[in-house]
Design goal:
Length: about 110
């Protein structure tokens, strides 16, 4: 497959002009300030979602299940990105859960 480039962003062969335009706005986030802002927004989103669930169903069991669910999701994410790369195989480097899933599905075929 031939790879085209748009500036410093690689494009898949046969990409449409709309695809090229969209990609130039989706470069990697590298600024530490923006990375911290992104992390803060994720925490805010999680807190707001948990608060809404607890407002709708204010029971101890609901709070406990939310905490367990958040903890388990965080540990799974840590495993998927840190543990896989550092302890299983250094070639397991992914940009996100979608790219990790695609890679594993390709390995199964």
């Amino acid at each position: 497959m031939t790879e085209q480039r748009h500036g410093d962003v690689p494009l898949p062969a046969g990409g449409t002009p709309a695809h090229r335009t969209r990609l130039k706005f989706m470069r990697d986030l590298t600024s530490p300030n923006w990375l911290f802002a992104k992390a803060a927004l994720f925490v805010l989103l999680a807190v707001l979602a948990a608060a809404i669930v607890l407002i709708r169903d204010p029971h101890f069991v609901t709070a406990a299940l939310l905490l367990v669910g958040m903890w388990a999701a965080a540990r799974a994410y840590y495993f998927a990105f840190y543990v896989m790369e550092k302890y299983v195989d250094p070639s397991f480097r992914y940009s996100g859960l979608g790219s990790m899933l695609k890679s594993f599905l390709r390995r199964l075929q």
